[in-house]
Amino acid sequence: MIDRQKLNENFQYFDNETIIEIIDIFFEEYPDRVEKMTKNIQDNDFVQLKFNAHSIKGVVANFQDPVTIELSRKLDEMAKNQQTAGLQQVFDDLKTACDNLMIELAALKKEHS
Questions:
Q1: Is the Cβ–Cβ distance between 78 and 86 less than 8 Å?
Q2: What is the pTM of this model?
C-alpha cells in the first residue's frame, strides 16, 4: 500500500501532468520488465536478473509502497547472491505487489487528472 504522506513529499514539486507521466511510464514498462525477469529466472541469468531487479526497485521506490520496495530489494539481493531457493516465490510475490500497486496508481492517476 502506498504511503501517501511519503508519496506527496516525493512528488511535491511536480505538477499533475508530470505525476501522470511518471505513472504512465511505469504502466508501459512494467510488462517488459516482468518478461525480462521471468526469462532471467528461467535461464539462471543472475547478472541480468540483478540488473532488472535493481531497475524495478528504483522505479517502485518513487511510489513509496514499502511492500513492493522490500520485495524488489529482496529479489535484487537474491540475484546478487545467486540464491535460487525461494527466488520464484519472491518474484511471484513482487508481481502480486506490483499488480496491487498498479491498482493504487490507477486511482492516483484519476485523482490527478
A1: yes
A2: 0.92
Least confident of 2-6, 45-49, 76-80, 88-92: 2-6
Domain range for 54 is 4-112
CATH number, domain at 45?
Answer: 1.20.120
Report residue 107 as a C-alpha cell: 486511482
Which residues, 6 or more positions from 47, have their beta carbon under 8 angstroms from its beta carbon? none
Number of domains in the chain: 1
C-alpha cell at position 41: 529466472
CA 100 – CA 106 distance, rounded (Å): 10
Give the Cα separation of 79 and 44 in Å (integer): 9
| Total residue length of the chain | 113
CA distance 113 to 20: 8
Q: DSSP secondary-structure letter at 45?
A: -
